[in-house]
Design a protein that fits this description.
Layout: H1 10-33, H2 44-64, H3 75-89, H4 92-109, H5 115-132, H6 141-153, H7 162-183, H8 185-190, H9 195-212, E1 232-234, E2 237-239, E3 252-253, E4 256-257, E5 280-287, H10 290-303, E6 304-312, E7 315-322, H11 325-335, E8 337-345, E9 347-349, E10 352-354, E11 361-369, H12 372-380, E12 384-387, H13 396-406, E13 408-414, H14 421-433, E14 437-440, H15 446-454, H16 462-474, E15 477-483, E16 488-490, E17 493-495, E18 500-504, E19 507-512, H17 515-527, E20 533-539, H18 544-557, E21 562-569, E22 575-579
Length: 580
């Protein structure tokens, strides 16, 4: 049996993220089924799962960076990675609030992970989440978070114990969850507890298991403290307290609220009542200063509802429901630099919300690219793109979302990174369960993806197309230049911090002092085995003169080889090279 932690160190944070992801994976469909507030679109469980998946991936990346060391990462590094991962991967209203809860906890736990700090962290989380929501409503995840923090504080002067604190927080959250139908009318009418609150209970339950070694009793509690297994009477009506992990309640179908369980009409902007709301959900990440974000909040609050803005230190996650999606995005442009913009259209029908889409295309390509420049190139070629920004690899949920956005019966997925192999496989499997035929071409670099996309022909048979794209990718050798961050051993010898590394097919093959010389050496080694076409993808700060010099170098030494040059924009590597 693994040793139980005395405080929330980096290993405990890693375990917590893993267990929370497992818990939300088990309960995702059931949480989706009770999602009636603020929009009855049946995706709260999925959004929470994808948010935690991104948080867990960020923590794993921190541990991967320490694989060669003898000790685990610092607690501060782990909790900050968890919060940052949740921020960049947050989905929907519930996921955005959860990201702020984790950020609030991280701000305290970065100092220490003992019981006293955990108490403060839970309070900080609840306060931060409430401040992030433009119009807080009781009976939601905000209420559950506040109850967890209150229960964790314990008695005045009591000496805190980590296991007692996490257990108290969990029990307080369960009790608050059972009371949510009394506080929010739409929940009472539907006979369900708040979906976001139920997700938070699952996350806190994972924390209990992390600290105590035992999974907690699952299920919301009544105000008196008993597990709510039977219907609870509220205001003279019968409200079912849905056990966490139990079956959907009466009046709720697998896809959301059954027709007739909610009123057919309601005011246009009345989220407290669960009525019909704005037509679009707009979400984006935003690079902006604090004072700009304050003005953005005011403008977006006037445009719509369900406004949640979370983050800080120059990076923010914005979520809002509006009728004018363009105005919401323009407000972000005026405040700073929005990216990863996602707009979902809602259409009100029979009192609940459904997504409206056109007839799907027969085939599409989804490609992961390392920068804005290649994203534009691939989009022009007809592909749906996902940008993998430096230090922010996409989670499987983002790839699934891109497959859905492609809206096709058949999809070819190009991950363009060996590290994304398992992530892409998980996304493909998820999309297949939704009826999409997905083929994963195991491209390991962006230049292989470019080669595969160049031979894509949607009019030929699916299998034939996939084989041709796979062959083109496999025939493309790839390389990239990188800057060494520290002294280390490589396959090419010992490098020093600041050296330019030439990686061929993923391994360090050349150590140089400058980019031009290293690039020429890498090209010569790759072309020694032959080749017909060289592809150069230049980073944002690399001058055009380098491309001209490398083209001339190829012409002088290899007369029959052509060269094409693309601008990659803001990408991790200053130069990507492909030879096919």
């Amino acid at each position: 049996m693994p040793q139980l932690p005395d405080d929330l160190d980096a290993v405990a944070v890693r375990t917590w993220c893993s267990l929370a992801l497992e818990a939300l994976g088990r309960e995702r469909a059931e949480i989706d089924a009770i999602n009636v507030y603020p929009i009855a679109d049946g995706d709260t469980g999925t959004n929470l799962y994808l948010t935690v998946e991104s948080a867990a991936a960020a923590v794993e990346a921190v541990f991967a960076a320490h694989e060669t060391g003898t000790s685990a990462p610092a607690t501060a590094d782990a909790v900050r990675a968890m919060a940052h991962g949740a921020l960049i991967g947050a989905r929907g209203n519930s996921g955005t609030i959860l990201a702020q809860l984790l950020r609030g906890m991280a701000g305290v736990l970065a100092d220490a992970g003992d019981a006293a700090h955990l108490r403060l962290a839970l309070t900080s989380a609840a306060d931060a989440a409430r401040q992030a929501v433009a119009r807080p409503v009781e009976g939601t995840v905000l209420t559950v978070a506040a109850a967890a923090a209150e229960a964790a504080r314990g008695e005045e002067g009591e000496d805190p114990d980590l296991r007692a604190v996490v257990t108290a927080a969990y029990e307080g959250a369960r009790a608050a969850l059972a009371r949510t139908p009394e506080q929010l009318a739409v929940l009472g009418r539907a006979g369900v507890v708040d979906a976001g609150g139920r997700g938070l209970v699952a996350v806190l339950g994972a924390l209990v298991e992390t600290v105590t070694g035992q999974a907690p009793v699952r299920g919301p509690r009544t105000a008196s403290g008993n597990t709510a297994k039977a219907p609870v009477t509220v205001d003279g009506g019968s409200v079912v307290g849905l056990p966490v992990g139990g079956t959907p309640v009466e009046g709720v179908t697998a896809g959301g609220v059954a027709a007739g369980s909610l009123p057919a009409e309601g005011p246009l902007d009345c989220p407290e009542d669960g009525g019909a709301g704005p037509a679009f959900e707009v979400i984006y990440l935003l690079e902006a200063r604090d004072e700009q974000v304050a003005r953005l909040r005011t403008r977006l609050d006037a445009l719509g509802d369900s406004l949640v803005v979370v983050g800080g230190d120059g990076l923010w996650h914005v979520h809002v429901h509006v009728d004018d999606a363009g105005a919401a995005v323009e407000a972000g442009v005026e405040a700073g630099r929005p990216y990863r913009i996602r707009i979902t259209h809602f259409a009100t029908e029979s009192g609940h919300d459904v997504r409206v889409q056109a007839e799907p295309a027969q085939r599409a390509v989804v490609v992961v690219v390392p920068g804005d420049g290649l994203a534009g190139l691939c989009t022009e070629a007809g592909a749906t793109t996902v940008i993998a920004r430096p230090g922010e690899p996409p989670a499987s949920g983002e790839l699934v979302e891109a497959i859905r956005r492609a809206h096709a019966r058949e999809v070819v997925l190009l991950p363009n990174d060996a590290a994304l192999r398992h992530t892409a496989a998980a996304a493909a499997e998820q999309a297949r369960t939704e009826g999409v035929r997905v083929a994963l071409v195991p491209t390991r670099a962006a230049v292989q993806g470019i080669a595969a996309l160049a031979v894509h022909e949607p009019d030929r048979g699916f299998d034939e197309d996939v084989v041709a794209m796979t062959a083109a990718a496999g025939a493309t050798r790839y390389a990239e230049l990188a800057v060494a961050e520290r002294q280390s051993w490589t396959m090419a010898g010992i490098c020093q911090a600041g050296d330019i590394l030439g990686l061929i097919d993923g391994d360090v093959a050349v150590i140089g002092s400058d980019v031009p010389h290293t690039a020429r050496t890498v090209l010569d080694r790759m072309l020694a085995a032959g080749g017909e076409l060289v592809t150069l993808v230049l980073g944002e700060d690399v001058p055009d003169a380098l491309a001209d010099a490398l083209e001339e170098h190829v012409r002088e030494g290899h007369l029959a080889v052509d060269t094409v040059v693309y601008r990659g924009g803001h990408q991790r590597a200053p130069l990507l090279i492909g030879v096919e």
